[in-house]
Amino acid sequence: MKQRHHCVYTLKTNTARVVRRDFGEDLARWYSEPVLRSRSHCAISVGGAPLEVLKRYIEQQDRPH
After folding, report:
1. How many independent structural domains does the chain possess?
2. Which of 35, 42, 49, 55 makes the best surface tag, with the fewest CB within 10 Å?
3. Which of residues 39 and 48 earns the better pLDDT score?
């Protein structure tokens, strides 16, 4: 369990760093603090579903208003 947490933490940290580096000026409108993530995480299995099926499922979800 500890290794999974460390892996997720590292992935989220590095992803946030790249997003801030590449899109920092655009994000400044919405984020006054240099924090893009929370400490929580979720891991979900899709049972080997094809990528196209997953994309279609995500695209069909309701968008927040």
Report:
1. 1
2. 42
3. 48
